[in-house]
């Protein structure tokens, strides 16, 4: 296999790390909605926690995205 | 298709000058498009805050209400997370929040996003973590290291927990940097890729099939632009929230939780 092709395949494979981040962020927002619909009066105070949780889960996916971009443009 | 990564290139706007910096060596400096975007963002923040506080009234007008909402949001955030001591740290968090917000929003209007440069976001991450270290050591001295020793952990697992806490502390500036950089860069790459599809369809490279492709990709571009406005605000807000949480760890060391 040519090195150029292997590099592009590697960049694409690195992007699969985003799957985990997608599951994580979806899980956080889904759980938030489940909780918020059961107790809407407490939902407003948890918006900050919601976004912090989503940001922390997303950061790990962003790491794989950065690796993919690094491989692609290396 | 045009290269979607071309938009992130730094281009000098003035003639380049080579200077000799002590300790670092020879550096080429020039007034670049990144520098221009940051200067415009800085000017926008100063202009906005000057305008909203120019004719301050008891019953706020539209402009003043916008400024007060931003101010009140960060004020409430710092107050609810850090508490009583947060008042002293509010200017730091508010400055970082407004500057990142202005650069993110300007990236959607200009052709260049300053926060999609890892050098810019890394500077913010390093400033934040240096602030945390400085406050921790000035306020608590050597007791700062108890930050890595959580209470109530059984002693057999304590060494491992300390190592994990220490590594996660070292990773904080890295994730702060990469989250902002990755979100801004990823969003703008996606925008340009879909805009590139629309250009290909108009060019007639795929015949009459280009009509539905053009409609779909242009619709996607419009939708993504709307989403990018949300992301631009959200990432600035998340940066401010995480900065506040990290500062809270050292301000209320040992009794913050």
TrEMBL record, chain A:
* CDD domains found in the cross-reference section: ATP-synt_Fo_c_ATP5G3 (cd18182)
Q: Where is this site: Reversibly protonated during proton transport?
A: 58
Query: What is the protein's membrane topology class?
Result: Multi-pass membrane protein
Query: Recorded GO terms, molecular function?
Result: lipid binding; proton-transporting ATP synthase activity, rotational mechanism
Q: Which chain regions cross the lipid bilayer?
A: 12-30, 50-72
Keywords annotated in UniProt: ATP synthesis, Cell membrane, CF(0), Hydrogen ion transport, Ion transport, Lipid-binding, Membrane, Transmembrane, Transmembrane helix, Transport
Question: Which superkingdom does the taxonomy of this entry point to?
Answer: Bacteria
**SUPFAM superfamilies tied to this protein:** F1F0 ATP synthase subunit C
> Domain V-ATPase proteolipid subunit C-like spans what residues?
9-71
Its Gene Ontology cellular component terms are:
plasma membrane; proton-transporting ATP synthase complex; proton-transporting two-sector ATPase complex, proton-transporting domain
Pfam families to which the protein is assigned, alphabetical = ATP-synt_C
Q: Where is the protein situated, by its record's location annotation?
A: Cell membrane; Membrane
The task this protein performs is described as: Key component of the F(0) channel; it plays a direct role in translocation across the membrane. A homomeric c-ring of between 10-14 subunits forms the central stalk rotor element with the F(1) delta and epsilon subunits. F(1)F(0) ATP synthase produces ATP from ADP in the presence of a proton or sodium gradient. F-type ATPases consist of two structural domains, F(1) containing the extramembraneous catalytic core and F(0) containing the membrane proton channel, linked together by a central stalk and a peripheral stalk. During catalysis, ATP synthesis in the catalytic domain of F(1) is coupled via a rotary mechanism of the central stalk subunits to proton translocation.
Q: What is stated as this protein's family in its record? A: Belongs to the ATPase C chain family.
HAMAP family per the record? Answer: ATP_synth_c_bact
**What is the designated name of this protein?**
ATP synthase subunit c
The organism named in the record is Brevundimonas alba
Phylogenetic classification of the source organism: Bacteria, Pseudomonadati, Pseudomonadota, Alphaproteobacteria, Caulobacterales
Automatic annotation (TrEMBL), chain B:
InterPro entries, A to Z: ATP_synth_F0_asu, ATP_synth_F0_asu_AS, ATP_synth_F0_asu_bact/mt, F0_ATP_A_sf
Q: Which HAMAP family match?
A: ATP_synth_a_bact
CC terms in the record's Gene Ontology section = plasma membrane; proton-transporting ATP synthase complex
Record function comment: Key component of the proton channel; it plays a direct role in the translocation of protons across the membrane.
Specify the superkingdom: Bacteria
Q: Which GO terms describe its molecular function?
A: proton-transporting ATP synthase activity, rotational mechanism
Gene transcribed to yield this protein:
atpB
- Short name of one Pfam family: ATP-synt_A
The UniProt entry's coiled-coil ranges are none
Name of this chain's protein: ATP synthase subunit a
Q: Which organism is it from?
A: Brevundimonas alba
Q: How does it sit in the membrane?
A: Multi-pass membrane protein
Keyword Transport tagged:
yes
Family membership: Belongs to the ATPase A chain family.
The reply to whether Ion transport figures as a keyword in the UniProt entry is yes
Q: Transmembrane segments in this chain: where? A: 36-56, 89-112, 118-138, 145-171, 191-215, 227-247
Alphabetically list the UniProt keywords.
Answer: ATP synthesis, Cell membrane, CF(0), Hydrogen ion transport, Ion transport, Membrane, Transmembrane, Transmembrane helix, Transport
Localization terms from the record: Cell membrane; Membrane
């Amino acid at each position: 296999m040519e090195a150029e092709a292997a590099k592009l395949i590697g960049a694409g494979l690195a992007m699969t790390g985003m799957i985990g981040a997608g599951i994580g962020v979806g899980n956080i927002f889904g759980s938030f909605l489940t909780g918020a619909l059961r107790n809407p009066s407490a939902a407003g105070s948890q918006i900050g926690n919601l976004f912090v949780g989503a940001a922390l889960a997303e950061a790990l996916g962003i790491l794989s995205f950065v690796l993919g971009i690094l491989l692609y443009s290396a | 298709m045009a290269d979607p990564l071309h938009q992130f290139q730094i281009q000098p706007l003035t003639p380049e000058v080579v200077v000799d910096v002590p300790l670092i060596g020879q550096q080429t400096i020039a007034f670049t498009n990144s520098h221009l975007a940051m200067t415009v963002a800085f000017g926008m923040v100063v202009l906005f805050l000057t305008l909203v506080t120019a004719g301050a009234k008891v019953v706020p007008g539209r402009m003043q209400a916008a400024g007060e909402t931003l101010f009140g949001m960060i004020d409430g955030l710092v107050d609810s997370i850090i508490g009583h001591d947060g008042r002293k740290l509010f200017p730091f968090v508010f400055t970082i929040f407004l500057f990142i917000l202005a650069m993110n929003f300007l990236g959607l209007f200009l052709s260049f996003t300053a926060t999609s440069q890892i050098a810019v976001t890394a500077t913010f991450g390093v400033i934040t973590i240096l602030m945390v270290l400085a406050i921790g050591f000035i306020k608590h001295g050597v007791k700062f290291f108890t930050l890595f020793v959580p209470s109530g952990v059984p002693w057999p697992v304590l060494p491992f927990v300390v190592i994990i806490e220490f590594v996660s502390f070292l990773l904080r500036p890295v994730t702060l940097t990469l989250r902002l950089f990755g979100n801004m860069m990823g969003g703008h790459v996606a925008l340009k890729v879909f805009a590139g599809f629309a250009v290909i369809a108009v060019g007639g490279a795929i015949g009459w099939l280009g009509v539905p492709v053009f409609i779909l990709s242009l619709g996607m571009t419009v939708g993504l632009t709307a989403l990018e406005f949300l992301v631009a605000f959200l990432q600035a807000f998340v940066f401010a929230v995480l900065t506040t949480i990290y500062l809270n760890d050292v301000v209320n060391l040992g009794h913050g939780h």
